[in-house]
Amino acid sequence: MSEKILKKLQILADSAKYDVSCSSSGSKRKNTQRGLGNTNGMGICHSFTEDGRCVSLLKILLTNHCIYDCAYCVSRRSNDVQRVAFTVEEVVSLTMHFYRRNYIEGLFLSSGIFKNSDYTMERLVRIAKTLRTEHKFNGYIHLKTIPGASDELVREAGLYADRLSVNVELPTEQSLVKLAPEKNTADIVKPMSFIRHTIEENRQEIQLYKHAPAFVPAGQSTQMIIGASPESDWQIMQQADSLYKNFHLKRVYYSAYVPVQQDQRLPDLHSLPPVQRENRLYQTDWLLRFYGFSVNEIFNPSAPNLETDVDPKLAWALRNLHLFPVDINRADYEMILRIPGLGVKSAKKIVAGRKFHHLTLDHLRQFGVALNRARYFLICIGWNGYRRDWNATEIKRQIIAGNAQSTQLSLF
Amino acid sequence: MVHFVYDGSFEGLLTAVFDVYEDKAQRAQLFSVKNYQPDAFAERRDVLTDSVKANRVWKGLFRKLSPQGLLNVYSVYLSERDDRETLLLAFFRRVFAESVSIEDDFSSPLIVQISQISRQIHREKHRFEAFVRFIHLKGDVYFASIEPDFNILPLIGPHFTERYADQRWIIYDTRRQYGLYYDLKQVQEVYFEEVPDSSVLDLSSDQIEEGEELMQKLWQVYFQSVNIVERKNMKLHRKHLPIRYWKYLIEKQI
Lengths: 412, 254
Ligand code: SF4
Fold this sequence. Notes:
Chain B: It comes from Xanthocytophaga agilis. The complex is a heterodimer of chains A (412) and B (254). By secondary structure, chain A is an alpha/beta fold. Chain A is built from 15 helices and 12 strands. In chain A, 40% of the residues lie in helices and 10% in strands. A 6-stranded parallel β-sheet of chain A has the order 5-6-7-8-9-10. With 254 residues, chain B is of the alpha/beta class. Helix content of chain B is 43%, strand content 15%. Chain B is built from 8 helices and 8 strands; from the N terminus they run E-H-E-E-H-H-H-H-E-E-H-E-E-E-H-H. In chain B, a hairpin with a 4-residue loop joins strand 7 (178-182) and strand 8 (187-190). Chains A and B meet through helix 1, strand 3, strand 4, helix 2 and helix 12 of A and helix 5, helix 6, helix 7 and helix 8 of B. Iron/sulfur cluster (SF4) binds at residues 66, 68, 70, 73, 75-76, 112-113, 180 of chain A. Iron/sulfur cluster binds next to loops of chain A.
C-alpha cells in the first residue's frame, strides 16, 4: 500500500459520502473462533464529521466508473471526474486495518457499475466473502446491491453481509424516469422483494435448524433523495410507509440533495441542501415507527408539506387540541406518547413512576421532558394545563416565543 | 454519628455496608480513606475489606435488584463523586427495608439521581468504546491512551476483549494512571512507571510498527473526504465530539 491508495481513498470516499445510511445497528454477530470483531446490536459512532454526521463504517465505492448517467449522481458517465477503482485486496486490507485500530464498525460498500451489473456485484460479493472466510472478520458489512444484479449473486451477498440495501433513489416513478432514465422500477422492486422473501425463508430455516447460515441478519434498507424532484412531503412519506409495509424494510433514509453539477432537470447548482426538511422527514418517520402514528394523521390535502417552524408531533397536537390535555396520572401509555415534547423513554418512566406516587411537573422535569412544549398538553397534580381560551395559534406563538427566550419559562 | 472508613475499593465499600448493618448503626456515614477528614464529633470505625462480607451484601442486592439496578450501583461507585457513598447507603437502606422492588420508583429524587448518574457513566462508557484509537506498536501490540471523565475502564474491558480477541492490546487511562492489557488469553491491570501522558501521536518512529503511519494518514484522509462542506455545522460536531476528547483522536490531529 502506498501513496496511490491515498488518492483512491480520497476519491472513492468522497463519492460515497452522499449515501447517508451509516447505521451499523440491528445485527448481533458474535466473535467466532477467536477471530476479529463482533457487532453488538447497537452500533457505534466512532467519530463525527464536521457536518455532525456519525462515522461508523468505512463507507466507500469500489469504483466511480459507471456506465449509467443518473442526473443526481457525481459518478454519472457524463460527469468529468477522475475515475479510479480499488482492487478486491485493497478494500479487504483497508477494512481490516481500520477495524483493528477501532476506527470503524465495519464496511459499507457500494459501487458505480463497471462493464455490467453482475460483473460489479460479483466483486462486491468477493470482498465480503474474503473478509468473512479468510480473515474471520465478524464486524459489520453493508453491501449496496447493484441494480440489475442476478438473484444468485444477491443471495450470496446476503450470506456474508449483515445488511443489504437497494436504493429507490426517488420518491416516485415519474421522477425516476426523468432523472435516472437507464434505471427502471423493476430493477429496484425485484431485488427488494427477492430479499424480503429470502429473509422470510431464512427465518423459518433457522427455526428448524439452529445453525443454518443467517441471511442479512440486519435486514434491508433503502434511501430516497429529497429535493431533487418535486414531490411533497406527503408523497414521500406515503412511499416510505408502503416500503416499510411491502418490503419489511428496517430503515428508509432520507438524503437532502446536494447539487453536484448543473442540469436543467435539477435545482440550481448553488441551492442549499434542504437539511431542515430532511430533519422533519426523519421526525415523521419516527412518529410512524415508534409513536403509533399513521401517515394520514400527519398529512392531509390542505397540509401536504410539513411545517418548518414546529416539529410534526407538535403540529399534529395543535391540529387536534380536542384530544388534550392528557392526564399523565391516568391516561394510556399510547396517549401519553402523543404528548409533544415527550419521548418514548419518559413515557415509560411516567407509566412506571406513577405506580408509586402521583406525578407532578417536577417529576417530569427530572425525566427530561421538554416542558416548554409538553405543559400545554397535559395535566397533573398542581398543573391544570393551558388556559382554555387559548387556541392553537396562541399556543404555537407562546411555544415559539418561549423557545426564543427560555428564561421566561420560570414564570409558569 | 459513626464514620465507617474503607479502602476505596468496591469490595471495601460493600464490606462497609455489611459492617453498618452488623453494628445496627442508624446514624452512619461511609468514607473512602482518600476523602476522609477526621471529625471530632464522630466516632471513626476502620473497615477491613473482606470478600466474604462483601459477597453477602452483593448477593442480597442481587436478590432485590434487576441487572440494570446492579449496574446502577456499580456505576455510582465508578463515578468517583464525593457523595457516592452517601447516595449508595441511602439507596441500600431503601432496597433492604422494602419488600417490593423500588428501583423504578421515579417519584423518588434519590432514584432519579442514581439513574441519572448511571446514564452519565453509561454514556461515557459508550463514548470510549467509540473513541479508543489503537496504535500498532513494535512487538505487535495495539496501544491506546484515554482520559475519561469517569473511571470507565472496568466497564469497557469486556467489550474490547470480545471484539479484539485475536490481537494483543493495551488501553491506558492517563488520568488514573492504570491500564488494561489483553495478552490473547486474559485481561490484567497494568501500571507504567513513565506515563505516556501527552498525545500518543508523539510516539517516535522506532516505537511504532511499519505501516502504522500510512494507516493514520489514510484514516485522516478518509475523515476529511466524507465531510460534506455544504452542510458544515461545528456546533453539532462539538456536541457529538466534545473538544476534551480530541487529544487522542487521530482524525482530529490535522
Ligand atoms: S448507477 Fe449509481 S453510480 Fe451509476 S450514475 Fe446511477 S447512481 Fe451513479
